[in-house]
Amino acid sequence: MSVLVNKKSKVIVQGFTGTEGTFHATQMIEYGTEVVGGVTPNKGGQTHLERPVFNTVEEAVRQTGADVSIIFVPPGFAADAIMEATEAGIRLVVCITEGIPVQDMVKVKNYLKGTDTRLIGPNCPGVITAGECKVGIMPGFVFTPGRIGVVSKSGTLTYEAADQVVKAGLGISTAIGIGGDPIIGTPTVEAVELLMKDPETDGIIMIGEIGGSMEADAARWVKENGTKPVVGFIAGQTAPPGRRMGHAGAIVGGAEDTAAAKMKIMRECGIHVVDSPADIGKTMQEVLHK
């Protein structure tokens, strides 16, 4: 049983009938994910992709038993969509939407406190348990089942790492794209902890970037609690201080925000840090076979 999602997960799509929702729901269904329906206000009662459309998440949960939601809703409405899913009792919410105002995410973060809902994202590629369930926008064919977990702020580097791991003959258990915004639902340390406790994961790849302290926090947790090898990479090694690079959260603001500082902390905590993303798969293979 891998983490967060598996073949038993029942998934609904918020923003189901839109262009993005339609395209990615189709891909998820083709991968084998049990998409049981979707939500688009004022389109309840219709059928889309041979699945029912509901006006509200509450109605969708009541009629389908859904426990996972993926959100393809425009930035101005995405926070409400997350909170609606939480209120309806969805246990895992994956928010793909990019550009949600920080103030909205502050409200969401406070709203989630004390609930049983876990949020992945926003501005993320989603979660995939290889060969079982894809709740996201990642190219499914890259993810072959195996025993290496991936935690990443970057979407494309998630796919690159997975491809390398598969080509190294190892394969993926679960890959979690946590998102690159300043405020996200599940920080690096929580995702690493999930995989560290998963009996079907033998090693973890942790991909971070400049900005914030998530990687340092995770590295210190690994030093104290780690039982499996962790290979790490930090993107943005040539980024100038004070300039946002790519993700909204990728900006160097303090001494520990730089790639060099994060890599130093990670190495001190026993993580096998690579200087180039091209070495991720090879290094994991070497570490496991020591």
UniProtKB/TrEMBL annotation:
SMART domains: CoA_binding (SM00881)
Gene3D superfamilies associated with the record: NAD(P)-binding Rossmann-like Domain, Succinyl-CoA synthetase domains
GO molecular function: ligase activity
Annotated metabolic or biological route of this protein: Carbohydrate metabolism; tricarboxylic acid cycle; succinate from succinyl-CoA (ligase route): step 1/1
Catalyses which reaction(s): succinate + ATP + CoA = succinyl-CoA + ADP + phosphate; GTP + succinate + CoA = succinyl-CoA + GDP + phosphate
Ranges of residues in domain CoA-binding: 4-100
Active site: 247 (tele-phosphohistidine intermediate)
Superkingdom of this protein's organism: Bacteria
Binding site for CoA: 17-20, 43, 96-98
Keywords linked to the UniProt accession: Ligase, Nucleotide-binding, Tricarboxylic acid cycle
Binding site for substrate: 159
InterPro entries: Cit_synth/succinyl-CoA_lig_AS (IPR017440), Citrt_syn/SCS-alpha_CS (IPR033847), CoA-bd (IPR003781), CoA_lig_alpha (IPR005810), NAD(P)-bd_dom_sf (IPR036291), SUCC_ACL_C (IPR005811), Succinyl-CoA_synth-like (IPR016102)
Record-linked PROSITE patterns: SUCCINYL_COA_LIG_1, SUCCINYL_COA_LIG_2
SUPFAM superfamilies per the UniProt record, alphabetical: NAD(P)-binding Rossmann-fold domains, Succinyl-CoA synthetase domains
EC number: 6.2.1.5
Family recorded in the similarity comment: Belongs to the succinate/malate CoA ligase alpha subunit family.
Role of this protein: Succinyl-CoA synthetase functions in the citric acid cycle (TCA), coupling the hydrolysis of succinyl-CoA to the synthesis of either ATP or GTP and thus represents the only step of substrate-level phosphorylation in the TCA. The alpha subunit of the enzyme binds the substrates coenzyme A and phosphate, while succinate binding and nucleotide specificity is provided by the beta subunit.
Subunit structure: Heterotetramer of two alpha and two beta subunits.
Name the record gives this protein: Succinate--CoA ligase [ADP-forming] subunit alpha
Name of the encoding gene: sucD
